[in-house]
Amino acid sequence: MPLNIYDISRRAGVSIATVSRVLNNSPHVSENTRKKVMAVIEGCGYVPNAFARGLGLNSMQTIGLLCPNASDPYLAQALANLERSFRAHGYDCLLSCTDKELSARMQGVELLRTRHVDGMVLMGSSFIEAEDRNNDFIREAAKAVPILLLNGSFPCDNVYGVLCDDQRAACEATQLLLDSGRRRILYLYHSQNYSGRKKLAGYCDALASRGVELDESLMSYFGEDKTSVYQVRDHLLALERQGLEFDAVFTSEDILAVGAVKYAIAAGKKVPDDLSIIGYNNSSYCLCCNPELTSVDNKLSAICDHIVATMMGVLEGREMPQKTVFTGEIIRRGSTL
Amino acid sequence: MPLNIYDISRRAGVSIATVSRVLNNSPHVSENTRKKVMAVIEGCGYVPNAFARGLGLNSMQTIGLLCPNASDPYLAQALANLERSFRAHGYDCLLSCTDKELSARMQGVELLRTRHVDGMVLMGSSFIEAEDRNNDFIREAAKAVPILLLNGSFPCDNVYGVLCDDQRAACEATQLLLDSGRRRILYLYHSQNYSGRKKLAGYCDALASRGVELDESLMSYFGEDKTSVYQVRDHLLALERQGLEFDAVFTSEDILAVGAVKYAIAAGKKVPDDLSIIGYNNSSYCLCCNPELTSVDNKLSAICDHIVATMMGVLEGREMPQKTVFTGEIIRRGSTL
DNA sequence: GGAGATGCTGTAAACGCTTTCATAAACGCT
DNA sequence: AGCGTTTATGAAAGCGTTTACAGCATCTCC
Q1: Are B60-164+300-328 and B166-298 the same fold in CATH?
Q2: What DSSP state is assigned to residue A176?
Q3: What residue ranges do the domains of chain B occupy?
Q4: With bands split at pLDDT 50, 70 and 90, how would you rate the model's confidence at B309?
Q5: ω before B146 within 30° of 0 (cis)?
Q6: Superfamily for the B1-58 domain
Q7: What Å value separates CA B8 and C1' D28?
Q8: Model pTM greater than 0.90?
Q9: CB–CB of B91/B62 below 8 Å?
Q10: Is A240:A138 a contact under the CB 8 Å cutoff?
Q11: Domain covering A60-164+300-328, topology
Q12: Distance from residue B53 (CA) to nucleotide C12 (C1'), in Å?
C-alpha cells in the first residue's frame, strides 16, 4: 500500500490541493509550504500514482515508437537514441515493432486509442505510401497527437518530418562511382518507400548529370527479410550468367551491399578494382566486410536528436519547423576506388 | 470527446456495471444483454479509457523491457521478438535502454515506481552482478512484479531465468577448436557478467577435458563500445608483436570475432588455415565476414518465446519453472576448419 | 405457496489525482 | 480605518473505470 496524496497532505498539515500544486510546480504556493511539503515527500519517498495522474491530465507522458523492423541495426540504433533522449525529457517510450506495413498502421492507431500516447514517431519512411489515399491513418492520427517522421516527410498539419536529403546523397554517391570511371552501376533497393524513391531519383540525377543513359535492367528490388544477403549474391550471379555487365553497385541499405560483396567473392571479382560498392546508412555492417564498405552516413543521431527536440517543442506548444533536412555524407572506405 | 462508459450504458439501456462486466468478460451477464451491449460498443467504436482502467485495476497491461544496449543487433532482435509476442498477449512494452549498468538499475526501479509495469524483462545478464549485494535491486523489484532474465539466472522468489547453457556451448566450441588441432586459443570477452563467467568456465572445461594447460595471457577483456572491432584488431596485433602465439580465437560476442577477422587480414593470416575463429550469438554479423563466422547459436527466439510464456503464466497465477535452460548449437561456417 | 437458491442487474463507493471556485489572509493605498 | 487587489489555501467536483453489495426476478423443491 504505497502512500497517496492524502497521506502526504496529512503529514504536511496542508490540503491535497496544495500537495498537488507542489508536485506540479505551480507558482501559487508560498516558498514556506513548498519546502514543508517537499520535505515530507522526500522523507517518505512518495511517488504520485501515474494512473490517477493520467486520468486527470489525460496523458501519461508517453511516446509511441513505431518501428518497422527492430532487428535492423540501423533502426535499433535509432531506437536506442530516441528512447534515451525522450527519457531525459521525462517521457517514456512504448515500443511497437511490426513487420508488415498494414499492421503497422493498425498498431499506430491502437497505440493512440488504447494508450493515449502523447506523440508518435514513425521510424522509417515505409509508413508513407506512394498511394496517398493509403496515408489516411497518418492524417487521422495527426489530428490527435503530433507525428514525427524519421527519414520521411509528409505535408500535413501536426506531422513533422526530420530526414536526410537522400536524393542528393544518393546522387553524390552515384557520381562518385561515375567519376571513378564506372558506367554500369547496379542499383539495388529494399523497398519502394519514401526514401527509397528519393534515393532512386538521386541515382537518376547522377546519371543525367554525367550524360549516362538510364538502363532499367540495372535496377533490382529485394524483399526485407534476413536472407537478403544471399538473395543479392545469387541474384547478381544470375544477372552475370545472363550476360548483364556492371562494374559498380549502389544499394539502398548496407545489408544489400554486403550481399554485393558476397557476390564479388563468389564470382572471383576484386573489390574495388573489378567492382565498386557503396552502401547506405553507414551501419555497423560496413566495418564487417573486407574491404570495408563505403557508405552514406545519413546523420542518424542528429536526426534522432532533432526528432526529440521537435516533439518536445510541439508538446510544449511552441511553433516548430515542419520539415528539417540534414545533408548526408559519404564515408569512403575500401569498397570504392 | 470520446465516448465513456456512461454513453454506452445509456445507449444500451443498461447500467455502467453491466457494460463493465461485458467489457471484462464477466460470466455474470446474460447472453442477451451481452449481445445488446456489444452491438452498441462495436457500433460506435468505443474503447475504454486505459488510464481509468489502470487506476481501478492498478495495472495497464504493460511490461518493462530493460535493454542494456539496443544498438547491438542481437539484443535488437530480442527486443523485436519480445515486443511482438507480448503484444500478441495484449501487453504493451515500455522500453528502457541504458548504457551504464548502474543507471539500468535505477531505471528498472523507476519503471516500477512511476509506471507500475506488470513485469520486467532484464535483457542480458549484465544486470546480474558478481557481487551479490549489488543485486538487491532485483530482489526488491521482484517483491512487486515478476522479473524475467534473458540469458541469466538468479535464485530469488519471483525471478525467472531463461537461458542457454553457455558453459556447455562454450566448452563445445572450444573443443571444436582443440579437436581440429589448435592448442593456443585466445578467449576474448566483452564483460564479466553472468553469461560471460559461464562462457569462461566452459572454455576452461574444454581445455581441461583435453589436457591443455590454461594460460591466462590468452584471455583479454574489451569494453562495450562500438570501436571494439578495431580495438580487437589492434590488441591482437600488439599481442603478436609481443611474441604471444595463438592459432585460434573464441569470443563472447560475434562483434569481437569480427575484430579477429580484421586482425587476420591485417596480419596477413589466412582464416581458418592460420587462424580459426568462433564467435557467439550467431548474429547477422556472422554472414558479413569473409569467411563467414562459425558461431554459437544460443537459441534467442526460443528464449524469447519462453520468456513471454513464463511471464504470462506467472501473471495468470500459474506455477512456472524458475529456470529454463536451452542447449546452444554450434553453427559451423568458414572461419573454422 | 413459501423458503431458499440462483442468476442477473443496478447503486454507489472506491481508485488517486487535477483543477475550479470560493474564501481567507495579507498588502498597498488613500 | 476602509477599500480593492493580490496571493495562498482548502473544499469539492470531476476524470472513467471496477467491484462490493444489495435488490429483484425466476426457479426449485418440498
Answers
A1: yes
A2: H
A3: 1-58, 60-164+300-328, 166-298
A4: very high
A5: no
A6: lambda repressor-like DNA-binding domains (1.10.260.40)
A7: 36
A8: yes
A9: yes
A10: no
A11: Rossmann fold (3.40.50)
A12: 18
**Cβ-defined contact of A116 to B50 (cutoff 8 Å):** yes
DSSP letter for B302, please.
H
Residues 6+ apart with CB under 8 A from A323: A153, A160, A161, A162, A163
What average pLDDT score do residues A255-272 get? Answer: 95
Is B97's CB within 8 Å of A113's CB? no
- Asked if residues B200 and B207 have their Cβ atoms less than 8 Å apart, the reply is no
CB of B291 less than 8 A from some CB of A = no
Give contacts of A52 with chain B, Cβ < 8 Å.
55
pLDDT digits (tens, 9 = 90+) for B18-45: 999 999 999 989 999 999 999 999 999 9
pLDDT value for B239: 95
**Span B166-298 CATH architecture:** 3-Layer(aba) Sandwich (3.40)
Extract the C-alpha cell encoding A260.
554485393
CA A49 to chain centre: 32
User: Letter for the amino acid at B13?
Assistant: G
Tell me what pLDDT residue A105 has: 67
With beta carbons less than 8 A apart as the criterion, state whether B296 and B331 touch. yes
The grid coordinates of residue B3 equal: 465516448
pLDDT digits (tens, 9 = 90+) for B256-295: 999 999 999 999 999 999 999 999 999 989 999 989 999 9
Give the chain A residue whose CA is nearest to the CA of B72. A73
Dihedral sign of CA atoms B196, B201, B202, B204 in order: positive
For residue B61, give the chain A residue with the closest CA. A115
Nucleotides of C under 7 A from a protein CB: 7-12, 14-20
> Is the preceding omega at residue A68 within 30 degrees of 0, hence cis?
no
Distance, Å, A44 CA → C13 C1': 28
